[in-house]
Amino acid sequence: MRQTKKLAVAVTLALSTAGAFAAVATVNGVAIPDNRADFFVKQVTERGQKDTPELRSRVKEELVRNEVLTQEAVRKGLDKNADVQTRVDLARQQVLVGALVNEYVKANPVSEAELKKEYDRIKANISGKEYKARHILVKDEAEAKAIIADLKKGKKFEDIAKAKSMDKGSAQNGGDLGWSNPNAFVPEFANALKGLQKGKLSDPVKTQFGYHIIKLDDVRDAKGPSYEEVKPELQRELQGQKVQKYVEDLVGKAKVQ
Length: 257
Known about the structure:
A hairpin with a 2-residue loop joins β5 and β6. The strands form two sheets. The chain has a four-stranded antiparallel sheet, with helices on both faces. By secondary structure, it is of the alpha+beta class. The chain is built from ten helices and six strands; from the N terminus they run αββααααβαααβαββα. The chain folds into three domains: about 80 residues, no CATH class; about 80 residues, no CATH class; about 90 residues, Chitinase A, domain 3 (Roll), CATH 3.10.50. Helices cover about 60% and strands about 15% of the residues.
């Protein structure tokens, strides 16, 4: 009999101790479960912060504050307000939809084979030439002609671009536009670029931005970005397509009246 009583006391103590550790804090008799704190910490650490005692202290303060305010809102009957209830229902739906989509993505990831197939499809449609060019953009034609004259006298294209080009993005790189498809530029610029020979300068080219002096550095067959460069974007796109189809299938099977 005495052993039974000791066992009962031990179980009671164990349960009360477990309950104490299961709550991060108690507010007006309401326990805040520690898994709620763990969830908050997980969200923050996934964004790069470290799990530290200071972080958990801040999380605890936030949870306590939220619990106090929630209790006050309930005391005032705001949880019975129709608009509040609607917002709570919509928030619940959003959380569930997010959980469903996350579960689907984990169970149906985009495979390496699917990614490479899509990359090969895109690459097969890449054709034509890519141009490596520089340009200097100025306000009027007279200035453009004066710059061309200076360049023919031996002044460096890069130096003039840095000093005078209105295109500040390329100016700091000596006017360098990198490897580009002509379709990336306005038609006037693209046509002038395609008409240039390697190493040559254009006449002043007027566009909506001003007057350009273009220098063609090199030409090559278009090859497009590498697989590793576009893989993250392809992954997002294909995964999005899978999710969209999944959602459409579910909606299509639903009985909507």
